[in-house]
User: Fold these one by one.
Assistant:
Number 1:
Amino acid sequence: MSLKSSAFFCALLFLCSCNTSKDTPGNSGSQSDDQEYSLSDPRPDTLARALFSNLNKLSGHHVLVAHQDALAYGIGWKGEDFRTDINDVSGDHPAIFGWDLGHIGDAENIDGVPFDDMKRWAVAVHDRGGINTYSWHMRNYAMGGSSWDTDSCVEACLPGGAMHGAYLAKLDLAAQFFSSLKSADGALIPVIFRPFHEMNGGWFWWGTSSCSPEKYREIFRFTVDYLRKEKQMHQLIIVYSTDNFVSADEYMTFYPGDAWVDVMGFDDYHGLKAMEETPKTIFMLETLDSLSTAHRKLMTISETGVETIPDAAWFTGVVLPTLKTNNSTRKASWILFWRNGRPDHFYAPYAGHASGPDFIKFMNDSLMWSLSELPDMFK
């Protein structure tokens, strides 16, 4: 795959010409004039601040390609040395690697990925200049069940609730895991953390079927505050991520507030299904551009994909023209394709799949960036 070297060096010069961090949060400016947005944490670690700043500089110029569990397994293989299906197809790895904290405290996560391996791979990603993002399909602690057990658990997890102690124990494990992610020089690796996603749907215990917007905001704020203030986690970049939405009001219904959010995103398994559905995604991206600019946040498509990719030209026929529709749609900082779990459940191409040639064209487009094309995102 072509590495689009001219685009790479232009962006490198672009980043180097800008001040990539600010000592004082809340400085003025916007993405459109290349001034800084600030992290919501008033005491961000240096590397987290640099990563957020550089994502801000790239917004509108490049969309980073992300893939869930990319190093853990693919179609026909598992746990090999820095192997990804995306690299097998295109000759380069995703720029952002997605992971999940579901079942933390067990040896393996919700998707069978050993936490010890996840730690090792996350460090390897950072050492190669890549970025790690974590979702959390959190168990329903009140029932001892899964994320999809929708009996209310939120009040039980909040202070004074019956499961508050159990919830704190899980947050402590998450903090311990994040604290174990260190670079070769001992610096804490920045983490893009996306808790309590798709809350405007009814399928999770923190969603509309069992949680009010007020209680959702309360547990989101409590979680972020606990990790920052009690556990001193200042390397976190926090994502608020809905499912599909039809209005700005719906998107903001559960929004916990600017002091607890750095990136505004949405998961989209509907609007990107086919070209005739993409006006939905375009509307959401345009709405998110307006909202994220007003609230001084970055924006992302935090999950997407079509299971088994039945359309061999989906990447350049649906995804790419949607992202390139206008200046608003180009502002998605990254787009994360869901995991390649098994032959009947995959969202990125693998070697030999019919969509492979189209995916190479997608990755070669100047808008889309992969791992080797990233400048130093932590400087």
Number 2:
Amino acid sequence: MSIIVKIPGKSSLVRREIEETLRERFREIDVRESLAGVEFRREDALIVVGDDKDILQTLHTIHDREVNVLAVSREATRGFLSQCMLADLPEALEKISRGQFIVETLTALEVGIDEHSPLMAVNEAALFSQISATLIEYSLRVDGELLWRDLADGVIVSTPLGSSGYSLSAGGPLIHQGAKALAIVPVNSIDMTRRPLIVGENSTISIESVSSRGGAEVIIDGLLRIQVEEGIIIRGYEPPVKFIRLNGPSQILSKIEKKIHLAEELLDAPPSAKLILKTIEYEGPLTYSQLLKRTMLPERTLRHALNILVSKGLLARRPLTRDARQKIYYIPEISQAGDSNTQE
């Protein structure tokens, strides 16, 4: 088995961190900024260091190759894909080299847009108008059967992994990662009978006769935007995505469980609190002044919402290392990393 470590492009700092972490024990490990020209074998292991966006971009790069992927975070985040921290990489590599791991196979989507070559989606494919606040009209077929014609803000087709993200925010269901299913989630349909629909992973989902003022586009995993003229066809992707799971419970299941508890805690919280938490989830730890700029909330509303989140234990705060007069807000036990990337 060959082990390749993929780091974000042109990241000399990350490379130094990797080399210092691995030291003398893993000199045979191949550390790369690009996977161009790499020939993978089915048993090879690819270690991807970065956040969820880095990992998704890498998966899109190697979508047509069977390789076992271990996602590694440099710092504590709410990323769903990471299985371990960079500091734990030597121990993880020891286990991988001894074969002490299992491979978790996750469903991905094959997305055909008009006459273009199919693309892969790990989380979801979302169809929306190219002009904000504009409705889109489409017909939905599953395995050739017309299920509905709809007028809505959009529609999302999600994998089990993606069901805890964009799809969930739009009112879709959480799907256990072991389920052989996909979710179809209408977004703000004008017809109240259009509800989230669960179909088998081998189903062929056709979204046809797409029409919207200003045009429509498909958003793949939040990374790619492709204009749509006629429609899209979605089915399960081959080969599936394969993640290395080390000993212990699935990190993905653990994070889904945390997300469920988080949703319960937020049921009676004001919208301002939810906005603040979502902002910190996406951007990492932020100071009060940064939150004021990002959320554009009135100061009194921001202070009240922060007090609610801190009292519930959903946020914590600590003095900035470089300026003890300022406090930085972060998600406890997840965003414990330093504030070196936080700038005024």
Number 3:
Amino acid sequence: MGRNSSVLGHAARNVYLCPLKNFSEVKFNKYHGAAISAFVIWGFIPFPLKALTAFPSSQILYFRILVSVVTLLLISGTTRREKWRQTIQLFKEHGPIEKRRFILYTLLGGALLTINWLAFIYVVNHVDIQTGSFSYLLCPILTAALGFLILHEHLRLNQWLSVGLSLMSCLLVGTDSIYNLLFSLLIAASYAFYLITQRLLKEYDKIVLLTLQLLLAFTFIGPSYPWFVGEAAQPITGHFIGQIVLLSWLFTVIPLFLNLFALKELKSATVGVLMYLNPIINFTMAFLYFGEVASEQKILAYFVIFASVVLYNLPIGKKKEATASA
């Protein structure tokens, strides 16, 4: 999600796709409050983005990465020195193959995150909020399918049916607007592949990884501001700086730390259910506040993708699976 990259400390598939019964069995505490706060904050991310509609998406992305990485470096230098020391030590202990894998997936993660953020910013400001929200409902199912293909993770029958329903929702959106579908798939696929790369680096601290990824991303785009932003670049104003700081701090760094705090105590299943607050709030704002409209075909597609999410999360075959593994 251009906006929810912090929930990577656990296995990507388990964080996103989890039995709904786990959610009903928990008692709320400060960790639930932290997770809910993070997803509610991300749910309102269209506000700072819409406030910057006059600026090209590449210019917004450029300064969002800059402010975010500077903020994370300051935090790393003051409160997370030990995590950096541990990460460096872990890297040194690995062999040449593992070191190359770390470098490759860190670079790839930075590139995928940059693509995801840029596409999401463009979609919210120049297509519609619905398309961005649909992407993050589609993303969990796509992540599960990639987990099966790349990581050889097991999928139960109801989960395969859920994948089929997701494909049906894509067809419905595609026949209504192939343009919107392609953007939805770009956002969903870039973040799904990003989650897979983070799964392969799960032993490393996620804040350290994110800092490195954004630092590497800015290393590439930083020196080429005129080329990256292009002739559409607008003069930097106080309004622009204020919205960028808001976007980088309130909608990136703060929810990032709230999520990591929540994941210290909460099961990934619980966080996975709470995560759906994000696109639900997006959809609500799109229709009720920003006055977006949707065709009957799109509305049907949204219902189908919601149904696929519910179907995937049903604990069908879970007991048999647990018994077999025991």
Number 4:
Amino acid sequence: MTWGFAEMRYPCPHLANPMLKTPPMTKRIEARFQKCRQEGRAALVTYVMAGDPDPETSLAILKSLPRAGADIVEFGLPFTDPMADGPAIQAAGLRALKVGQDTVKTLDLIRRFRAEDQDTPVILMGYFNPIYVYGVDRFLADAKAAGVDGLIVVDLPPEEDDELCLPALKAGLAFIRLATPTTDDRRLPAVLTNTAGFVYYVSITGITGAATPDFGKVASAVERIKRHTPLPVVVGFGVKSGAHAAAVAQGADGVVVGSALIDALKGTLDAEGRATAGSVEAVTKLVKELSEGVRSVAKRAAA
């Protein structure tokens, strides 16, 4: 399936304001982008699935990401019907569900990560159904207590902000929205309203890991989005290598990589889908390559 909700068109009351006011970022997200700006580079954002292939290996991978060069980590919340995700992330979610990963256990992994790392922003990414079943108020309180900084919930459009976005902002969690190649200038202000932390630009029309983006078009899209918001714009979907990361970093404030990391992990699993001695290292090796790619592109350092 494709990102159908992003292709919908609604009347927008914000067209008269080309630079929307946005809610403040959480301290960790803001500090991390500021650090990257001071270093004159884009941020590296890495995605892995909670509980894949088992909770302890998942935690070990999560802890290894910042050490390997990740600036921000996205942690996938497993769900049975991940409509925006390609085969790699779908399989990762199924592996996690098979070993009993759920929302409570995912928040516990983040809590354990926070015991050792108080600085790296953690974004929980997934779908609304598990959060709805958990209970929105309970979820937001528990996520905040566990050390979550923001949420990406891909199946909640702006018209449903009352369901989770506004309560999340009130609770002090960034609600990060996605823009796509089909999000035109008429729709974009609505997408950006109430967005906080950063804007996630989906570089292709389709599912995760499905294709390699046209890097020239990505840069133009980022410039267009930046005309509407002061927030950092990060780009994901289709980035698989250090060279890809460097190409995206030319124009974006951050580069997101997910499916490639999931594939690196999958390549180390045994015939039963269990972790092996090389599982964590395979992921960190690719993160280091991606980090080198991002850091190879010099940007104007912030004062």
